[in-house]
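Researcher: Please predict.
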Amino acid sequence: FPVTISRFMNVLAASAQVGAAEIPQVAEAILQAGVAAKSAGLSLEETNAAIQRLAVGGKVGSEAGVGLRNVLALLQKQSGEGEKVLEKMGLTTLKLGESLGKDGLAKTLDLVKNGLNAFGSQTEKNQALMQLFGAENSAVAGILLDGTNQINEFTKAMTGTQSGVEQAKVNMQMLWCLMYYEQRMERVLMLDQVKS
C-alpha cells in the first residue's frame, strides 16, 4: 500500500476512533504485520481494520500483529493436513492468495468461512481451523472469521478520511487559544503590578 505520511496519520487516527485499539497499539501491530499485509496486497485501511477487529476480540499490539501476519501467511501457504482441509473446503492456497490481492481480506475470509460448511459439526469446523492455522493462530483466525462485516465497516470508515488532519487542526486551535489566554493573563498581571 503506497502510503503518504498524511494518509498514514489519517488512517491511524480514524482507526483509533472506530476500533478498540489505541494508536500506539495499532503501530505495534503494524510493525509486526505490515510487511505481510503489503505482500498480500492489502490496503493500509483494511490492515488497520483487521487490527481493530482483533482488538475487539481481545488481541492488541504485537500479539495482534503477529497473529495477523501468521494468518495471512497461512492463507497463502499450507502443507500436509492444511492442504487436505482446504481441498475438502474446495479451496487452494493459490485461490486464497489471489483473493487476498484482488478482493481483500474480508472476502477471502468469507471464502474460508463458507468452505468450513463442508464440515458438519462445530467440533469438526474447529478441528479444521486448528489444522489450517495451528493452535495459537486459530484464535486469531476465529476472531477475523467472525468479524468480516466489521472489517468491512472499519475499512469503509478509514478510507478517504481526514481524521488526523482534523485532530491536528483542533489541537492547533486549542494551543493557539491557550497561548492567547496566557498572553492576556500576563498583560493583566503586568497592569496589576503597575497599579500597585
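Model: The CA atoms of residues 35 and 114 lie 27 Å apart.
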